[in-house]
Amino acid sequence: MTFDLVVLSPAFLDLTFVGLEGLPTLGAELFAGDLLRSPGGGAITAVAGARLGLRTALAAPLGDDLAGDFLREELAREGVEVIGRRSRVTPVTVVLPVAGDSAMVTVDQGVRCTAADVANHAPAAMVAGIDQLTCVPSGVASYVTCGNDDARAFARRLPAALGESRALFLREHEALVLTERSDLEAAVEDLARSVPTVVVSQGPSGAVAILEGRRHDVPASDVGRPVVDTTGASDLLVAAYVWADLRGADAEERVRWAALYAELSVTAPTAVGGAVSEERLLDEGARHGLSPSPR
């Protein structure tokens, strides 16, 4: 099968406590309204890609365990094909959303996709962590993400291959850690010297981007509903950016579509719970003055 998008980023089983009024302290017991299981990490991006009409595959290794079985079933239901090898254990994250933010605890054995896992696939686009650039085949457009661990590991030593990617996506905290800067403006300028497009998520404040050398501030859109869970919004932003890029949107509109998609997601528990369909995104985009690009 030919894919539009292959996601290499590690996937997790997310266990989300819903309805918490605060975080527990030592010796205290709090009660949640519900506990939800959902795809996390790279699986969020893959599910979003499929809901946006892209033929999507996930290349992150999933374990031969109950968590892996659950993720494979959920991904198949969403139309995402799981490719590559299996691992022994599936990474798991416990998510505690509180007051528009969240705390997380993750168990991850560190098994990642290899170049051999995707050697026979040449999609239009690949989403990969900054440590996985060597896995992207020559000629495939890469969209690079950077989490907390990656930011610490690559601080002040960005890989040269990053300059060949279509865009780098990270949150404000990761941008500061990756560049070892205390000021976001300086951090963004540093990153823009290594990659032509940089998109930094700023949570409820929107996003700041350097698009082919030009600075763009993308304010948050008013989607008319309160924030419930921000987990995975940055993973959804990447998926929508790729979708808009493959549709032929210009640089500024790609970021605006991506930011809107992420903002729509935070009104529901879990990232995939808030990942809307292409039809819904197009409707919301029209409300916010965005024009759909030709496919």
UniProtKB/TrEMBL annotation:
The keyword Membrane does not apply. It comes from the Bacteria. GO terms for molecular function: kinase activity. Residues 37-82, 150-270 form the Carbohydrate kinase PfkB domain. Pfam families: PfkB. Keywords: Kinase, Transferase. This is Carbohydrate kinase PfkB domain-containing protein.
